[in-house]
Specification:
single chain, alpha+beta, Tetrahydropterin Synthase, Chain A, 3 domains, three-stranded antiparallel beta sheet, 10 helices, 8 strands, Band_7/SPFH_dom_sf, membrane
Length: 275
């Protein structure tokens, strides 16, 4: 039992490095002799170059030769036994096609987004998945539908950053075994049905009108209180009313009006009516 337990990790690491066996080593030795014999010609088949943003995963007789990918720069391969796959390490961005999603409160919306990802482990991206780029695109679409299906319409419209962060976390965890690092996820647009847009617009307009009426009513109430206080002050001092008349005349005269309406106190009119 102890030998089996200690042998497990070594077997797992040998899957990456690759144990060629006797026949494999014989073929490698023969290939090396062939390269040495035909050196001036075979050098063009042995020397390979990858760019700064690329890495090369080398397969020797169908097995990965090393835990670390080769590059950037020059590396050598055996023309008869080795093959390699280039992996691009640059960040790739793609648009998530618009998805018809039913929200938690039974509203149908169309949502699209954009995902930025890169290859963090070239060997895992080649050995663990057939097409890492295409698989990540499909997973992003399903993750978008799954995440937005748990949100209601208000959360979808107001909490886009939280939804994008949740999608990024789920995608990053799911693509970790593929050697993919999801750097950023953004929600681009949320399209609502036209009937729902008109209903929301009518609701917002009614809310604004109701708020305007409340504000106007509060203004009228405050104005009536101010007039009441002013009338009490004028009632206590009759001369204040005359001063108010003079102030009104001064304001009218400043506007250069040809007609001036001057109010008379009711006490003066009542005096003439008695006579």
């Amino acid at each position: 039992k102890k030998s089996c337990e200690t042998r497990g990790p070594t077997d797992h690491s040998s899957e990456r490095t690759g144990s060629l066996g006797c026949v494999g080593w014989i073929l490698v030795i023969l290939s090396s002799i062939f390269v040495i014999v035909l050196f001036p010609i075979t050098i063009w088949f042995c020397v390979k170059i990858v760019q700064e943003y690329e890495r090369a995963v080398i397969f020797r007789l169908g097995r990965i030769t090393d835990r670390k990918a080769k590059g950037p720069g020059i590396f050598f391969v055996l023309p008869c036994t080795d093959s390699f796959v280039k992996v691009d390490l640059r960040t790739v961005s793609f648009d998530i096609p618009p998805q018809e999603i039913l929200t938690k409160d039974s509203v149908t919306v169309s949502v699209d987004g954009v995902v930025y990802f890169r290859v963090s482990d070239p060997i895992a991206s080649v050995a663990n998945v057939s097409n890492a780029d295409f698989s990540t695109r499909l997973l992003a679409q399903t993750t978008l539908r799954n995440v937005l299906g748990t949100k209601n319409l208000a959360e979808l419209l107001s909490d886009r950053e939280g939804i994008a962060h949740s999608m990024q976390t789920n995608l990053d965890e799911a693509t970790d075994n593929w050697g993919i690092k999801v750097e950023r996820v953004e929600i681009k647009d949320v399209k609502l049905p036209h009937q729902l847009q008109r209903a929301m617009a009518a609701e917002a307009e009614a809310t604004r009108e109701a708020r305007a009426k409340v504000i106007a009513a509060e203004g009228e109430m405050n104005a009536s209180r101010a007039l009441k206080e002013a009338s009490l002050v004028i009632a206590e001092s009759p001369s204040a009313l005359q001063l108010r008349y003079l102030q009104t005349l001064n304001t009218i005269a400043a506007e250069k009006n040809s007609t001036i309406i001057f109010p008379l106190p009711m006490d003066v009119i009542s005096h003439f009516m008695r006579k």
